[in-house]
Design brief:
- Two copies of one chain form a homodimer.
- By secondary structure, chain A is an alpha/beta fold.
- Chain A folds into two domains: about 1-170, HUPs (Rossmann fold), CATH 3.40.50.620; about 185-275, 2-Layer Sandwich (Pantoate--beta-alanine Ligase, Chain: A,domain 2), CATH 3.30.1300.
- Helix content of chain A is about 40%, strand content about 20%.
- Chain A contains nine helices and ten strands.
- Chain A has a six-stranded parallel sheet, sandwiched between helices. In chain A, strands 8-9-10 form a three-stranded antiparallel sheet, with helices on one face.
- In chain A, a hairpin with a 2-residue loop joins strand 9 and strand 10.
- In chain A, helix 6 (about 120-135) crosses helix 7 (about 150-160) and helix 8 runs antiparallel to helix 9.
- Chain A is globular and about 55 Å long.
- Strand 5 (about 105) of chain A pairs antiparallel with strand 5 of chain B, so a sheet runs across the interface.
């Protein structure tokens, strides 16, 4: 696996790639969720470019940019093992040199769910992803369903700005006990990790009620609320039943609707979701 | 010359182009300034794509979107004669379908000169140009020095978002009497056209003073003011001596500095500039 630290190295490596290119943008601290994206890319593209960059513009000043886990050596070993052709792992100044000022505002969808809880977050996401699209020139780009609001924002950006590529979304990967994999799970103490299981449990309960005929958003959300309330230390950020493309609330659940949760466990913010 | 009205037609025609592609984005109502861009593109690229689209997002509600000249048939004949391979002339809904919401904000440079006079203008320009870049996938894109602030904004966007293409800027083309060519010159009455000549006259006077050793911004701007004042009907919007990249004011002129004017003649807003 070639490792490019600079834009010049990335561009020159990209130019040697014939056939289709799949891009897997990550912030590192890789887990099986990321690796499932790499495997999907390997399966459907001739070449795979992964990127590791903890993007400062998607973190608010009060968020965890500085303590975000950085495990580059282990990440490289995993990507190499999966057969990634090229890893782009730039320094901050390479992506945001002095004097850069351009931002991509995706519009109202970027202000919903996590965009409401984390103002400006999706402007940072959209901007870095557009930059990586221009740098890697992929035919397909792979993202996880875990970040459901991010998926909606990026779909809107790709459509609106006429990016000539396909967004591929891969299912959430869970630990055997149901916890959705996340780089931020490393922050959890053993006790917090146990408490965090209530998120997937709540979603499973609501999805099961939906399969048994419950379609009222209010009832499904109440149900999730009730399950989450069994863990007193878990502080809810949002519980939402929304259209997965617009992220606008639905009154009645239908196939394809998105049930999504964000909650704090200790100082760690976790998200999880389920498509009905 | 092939004419594509839809994105699908453009993309499929683009895929057949081997070698380098030059893009000349225009709003139509073509004049020799536009044709100089086409000729430069022909000279340095294997294929030339021109676009004609009167971009609504760069016009404020009080501006001239509806009356902006539309001369598609004559434009096509001119582009055909110049050897353009492909013209993309989409309808408004093709570029801005219902539900689109994404905008590119280039930052402070977009709020200077014409960006100050026309709030939001360069957000519209940056957004449509990024879309055309994604659709035409050019190696080089050609713009006129006449729109000096636009050039600064697009350079910043290309740099910040890592577009993999080269911006080529071609000199202002003038009528024999000195008037900078503009699609908006069609709005001018014979008397207004005569008055409008004072813009290039003022710039020439200041540039000549600079060549004779005058470097103080204040003096050069006063000089331009004095010349413009000889035409009572011409209302100044701005006179500026700026850095051509940042569009920030310079106190002292130096080689490469940009002298720029915007003024209203009757109801028509005209711009002109000179690089020192």
């Amino acid at each position: 696996m070639q490792i490019a630290k600079s834009i010049a190295e990335l561009r020159s490596a990209r130019r040697t790639m014939l056939g289709t290119v799949g891009l897997v943008p990550t912030m590192g601290a890789l887990h099986q969720g990321h690796l499932s994206l790499v495997r999907a890319a390997k399966k459907s593209c001739d070449h795979v470019i992964a990127t590791i960059f903890v993007n400062p513009t998607q973190f608010a000043p009060n968020e965890d940019l500085d303590k975000y886990p950085r495990t580059l050596e282990a990440d490289c070993a995993q990507l190499e093992r999966e057969g990634v052709d090229l890893l782009f792992a730039p320094a901050r100044e390479e992506m945001y040199p002095a004097g850069e000022t351009t931002r991509i505002l995706v519009g109202p969808v970027a202000d919903r769910l996590d965009g409401a809880s984390r103002p400006g977050h999706f402007t940072g996401v959209a901007t870095i992803v557009a930059k990586l699209f221009h740098l890697a020139a992929p035919h397909k780009a792979f993202f996880g369903q875990k970040d459901a609001a991010q998926v909606a924002v990026l779909r809107q950006m790709v459509r609106d700005l006429n990016f000539d590529l396909e967004l591929i979304v891969e299912p959430i990967v869970r630990d055997p006990d149901g916890l959705a994999m996340s780089s931020r799970n490393r922050y959890l103490s053993a006790e917090e990790r146990r408490q965090a299981l209530v998120l997937s449990r709540a979603l499973t309960t609501a999805a099961s009620a939906y399969r048994y005929g419950e379609t009222h958003a209010e009832h499904l959300i109440n149900l999730i609320n009730t399950v989450l309330a069994t863990e007193k230390e878990v502080r809810i950020d949002y519980i939402a039943l929304v259209d997965p493309d617009t992220l606008l609330p639905l009154a009645i659940a239908a196939p394809g609707a998105l049930l999504a949760i964000a909650a704090h466990v200790g100082t760690t913010r976790l998200i999880d979701n389920q498509l009905l």
